[in-house]
Structure formats: structure tokens, C-alpha cells
Design goal:
The chain is an all-alpha fold and 427 residues long. The chain has one domain (24-426): Up-down Bundle (Amino acid/polyamine transporter I), CATH 1.20.1740. It is 77% helix and 0% strand. It has helices spanning 24-37, 40-50, 54-80, 89-97, 99-135, 143-159, 162-186, 202-219, 226-237, 241-268, 273-282, 286-293, 297-336, 343-364, 368-394, 405-426. α2 runs antiparallel to α8, α5 (99-135) packs antiparallel against α13 (297-336) and α9 packs antiparallel against α10. The chain is globular. Residues 1-15 have low confidence and may be disordered.
């Protein structure tokens, strides 16, 4: 997660793998990756899943644990398969698949992540605006001013560097985990067990799971930070980088499964499908809806706080991936034209581009859930699930991972998530 440019041709260490032990920085990485995942997707997942009831959500819960861990592990291993220590995912794609394919996949990678950064501009503006109006009982400032102030605040943290970003993320995510768990427990007395007796037909059950997969993939996605994460594991641990990254990703997936799905179940058991439809139409997170729906000071205060912390912490990781993708596209095109870019000038351009584009979209306030379902989830699934599986069968450096049943599972769930977009279009 570095801001500074790194040397391009430092070769991967050749030390022999040895035992690895858990360190404090590993905990920070797990927290940071957790924070990347727990953003708008988590806060909108109950709204999507809640419209279909309890039992499809239970089936989705069984799938999500292995989906999250195995897919992110495969993507990290793909980044670590490069011969060059400092390669990010855009460099690895070009190294393994050639210039043309590398350019194409780099563009897809960027457009899988960039809209998420735009979503967070919308989400943070709506969350703070809703808090000002409904909880503080104030008149909100003009949307253009509110959105610009929030975006500049988030971008200033990213521009301060890796250590500042990790510290701010830690500051946000620890309370986020505690409050998320506390709210999940707090909602238990409001559970309506009638949802257990509403069993959908087999067709509705399967279709619901299928259509929920893109939102599910987005909700647990921390792939934008995986490239930087894997690169720094190799810098710090050399030949032990794969084992170290596997361990950290396993802890992250376990944390997500326990804390997030408990929260989602608590939300599902508290509201009716009609209320979830109303929340979707208002284009706000489930916690902001709770704060507005229930006359309860605890939910009214903590709901928007959780939403704010989740969106801000997740913005950091997704901005890293989008910045990396844009830098890769520009550098590739510059090399094709026979010149090299100036790193400092390129960084300034990228920062200004993101500030302006996120600000404009936040002012227009498009449908967040619609973007997730129709575009972002399938694109992420293609990069996160299918690209590493293809590399395992085509790239010699990845051949050692062939023959595992987990590859079949990752491929099947990835295809299902990608194909959901076609159903959405036809529907």
C-alpha cells in the first residue's frame, strides 16, 4: 500500500521457505482487508437478500466462507507468481498473457473497481446527509459542498501514505467490529421468527441465490487491496510470502463470515420484505433505514456511525486497486507510444481524476444497489474468480496449484456470478 514509486526490476528473493509466525502487522493486515470488504456491499447486502427471505440467505452463508477465502487466496498467488518482486497485478497479467491480453485485462480490472470508488462517494454523502436530517434535525448543507468535503477528507488520508492509512483503518475497524457485533445482538429481541416458515419454491430458491451472488461477491470483496497486499508480503517475507498471505487471508475470511453474516441475519429477522423494498427505493444503507424506522436512540446513533466507518475504511482499499489499475493503463499506453510517464505527474493526475469523478457522481446520486447487481459484482467475479483459475491451467508458474477440487468450486461460483448479469439484462 505504498504511495511512492518502487524500482521496476528487483528480482524475487530466492530464499528457501521456512516456518512463519503470526506478527502484529499480520493482525493489521487482517483488519485492513476486513475494512476493505466491510463497506457499501455489507450495508446493502441485507436489503438485497432480505427481499427473498431466510432460507436463501442460509444457503448463501454456506457458500460464502469458501468463496471468499479460496478466491482471494488464488488471486494473491497469481500476483506472487511473477518473476519480479515489485510487480502488481497489471504487471503480472502482461508478463503471463502478453501485451494485448494484458491491456484488456488491466482495463477490465480498473472498471471492476473504479465504479466501487464512485459508489462510496454516493454512499458516504447519503449516509451523512441522512444523519444530519433525521438524527441531528438540521438542514443539510448543499449536496455539492457536503460531497466534496467528505471526498477530500478521505483522499487526504490516502495521500498521507501507507502507515497513516493503516492507522486510520485500524482506528475505524476495531470499533466497527465491536459495534457491528453489538448491534447484531441488540436486534435479537426484535427478531420475527415467522420468516423461518416462509419457504420459497425450488425455482425461486435457486434464482434468488443466483441473483444474490453478484451482491454477495461485492459485499465480501477485498480483491482491490490484494495486489498491494501480496506485493508487500513478498517484500517482507520473500519465499514465505504465499504461506504468510494464505494465513492472513484465512483469518480475514473467518472474521467476515462470523461478524458480517451474523449482522445480516439479524437484519433479515427484524424487517419484512416490504421494508427492504422501501429501503432500496430510498437508496440508503440498511443501518440508515433502521435509524429512520425505529424510534430508538441506540440504533439512531450507532447505525449511521457504523455506516460511516464501514464506507470510509472500505474506500481506502478500493481506491488502492482503482489507482493501481489506472496507473497500469496509462503506463501501458505510454510504453506503446514509445515514452515513459513521470511518476509524480501521473500521481497528481490520478488524484485529481478521482476527486472530480467521485464528486460528480456523488452529486447525481445514482442507484447504488442497481450498480452492484447489474455491473460491478459480475466484473469483480471475472477478475477475482476466473482469472486466477485460467492462469492455473495456462501459466507454468501457477501449474503447481492444478488438480485441487477447490479450483472447480471457485470456477463454478465465479461463472454463476458472472452469468447473473445476463439474467438481469433479460429480465
Amino acid at each position: 500500500m505504498t504511495v511512492e514509486a518502487e524500482p521496476a526490476e528487483k528480482q524475487q528473493p530466492t530464499t528457501t521457505p521456512g516456518p512463519v509466525s503470526w506478527e502484529h502487522k499480520d493482525t493489521l493486515w487482517s483488519i485492513s482487508l476486513f475494512g476493505t470488504a466491510v463497506g457499501a456491499g455489507i450495508l446493502f447486502l441485507p436489503i438485497s437478500a432480505g427481499q427473498s427471505g431466510f432460507w436463501p440467505l442460509l444457503a448463501v452463508t454456506i457458500l460464502i466462507g469458501p468463496m471468499v477465502y479460496l478466491s482471494h487466496r488464488a488471486l494473491a498467488r497469481f500476483v506472487l507468481s511473477s518473476r519480479v518482486e515489485t510487480s502488481d497485478i497489471t504487471d503480472v497479467v502482461e508478463e503471463h498473457f502478453g501485451l494485448v491480453a494484458g491491456n484488456l485485462i488491466t482495463v477490465l480490472y480498473f472498471f471492476a473497481i473504479y465504479p466501487i470508488v464512485l459508489i462510496y462517494g454516493v454512499g458516504i454523502t447519503n449516509t451523512v446527509d441522512s444523519f444530519i436530517v433525521n438524527q441531528m434535525q438540521f438542514q443539510p448543507p448543499p449536496r455539492w459542498l457536503l460531497s466534496l468535503s467528505l471526498i477530500l477528507l478521505m483522499m487526504s488520508v490516502m495521500m498521507a501514505g501507507e502507515n497513516i492509512m493503516l492507522k486510520v483503518t485500524e482506528f475505524l475497524v476495531y470499533p466497527l467490529i465491536l459495534i457491528l457485533f453489538g448491534l447484531s445482538v441488540y436486534l435479537i429481541p426484535r427478531w420475527n421468527f415467522g420468516a423461518l416458515f416462509e419457504v420459497p419454491s425450488a425455482k425461486d430458491f435457486v434464482v434468488t441465490i443466483w441473483l444474490t451472488l453478484p451482491v454477495l461477491v461485492f459485499s465480501f470483496n477485498h480483491s482491490p487491496a490484494i495486489s498491494s497486499f501480496a506485493r508487500l508480503q513478498r517484500r517482507d517475507h520473500g519465499a514465505n510470502a504465499v504461506r504468510k498471505s494464505d494465513a492472513i487471508l484465512g483469518v480475514t475470511a473467518s472474521m467476515l463470515l462470523v461478524f458480517v453474516m451474523f449482522f445480516v441475519f439479524s437484519c433479515i429477522m427484524c424487517l419484512t420484505p416490504e421494508q427492504f423494498v422501501a429501503a432500496k427505493s430510498q437508496n440508503i444503507s440498511v443501518l440508515s433505514f433502521f435509524a429512520n424506522e425505529f424510534d430508538n436512540p441506540v440504533i439512531s446513533l450507532l447505525g449511521p456511525v457504523v455506516a460511516f466507518a464501514a464506507i470510509v475504511s472500505s474506500f481506502f482499499g478500493h481506491y488502492l486497486g482503482a489507482r493501481e489499475g489506472m496507473r497500469g493503463i496509462i503506463n501501458q499506453q505510454a510504453r506503446n507510444m514509445g515514452f515513459e510517464t513521470d511518476p509524480k505527474t501521473l500521481n497528481i493526475f490520478i488524484v485529481l481524476f478521482f476527486i472530480l469523478s467521485v464528486w460528480i457522481v456523488a452529486i447525481f446520486n445514482p442507484s447504488i444497489l442497481g450498480l452492484i447487481e447489474a455491473l460491478i459484482g459480475p466484473l469483480i467475479a471475472a477478475i477475482l474468480f476466473l482469472l486466477p483459475m485460467y492462469a492455473i491451467h495456462k501459466v507454468p508458474a501457477m501449474a503447481k496449484y492444478k488438480g485441487h477440487i477447490s479450483n472447480v468450486f471457485v470456477t463454478a461460483t465465479g461463472i454463476a456470478a458472472v452469468s447473473a448479469i445476463f439474467f438481469q439484462i433479460l429480465r
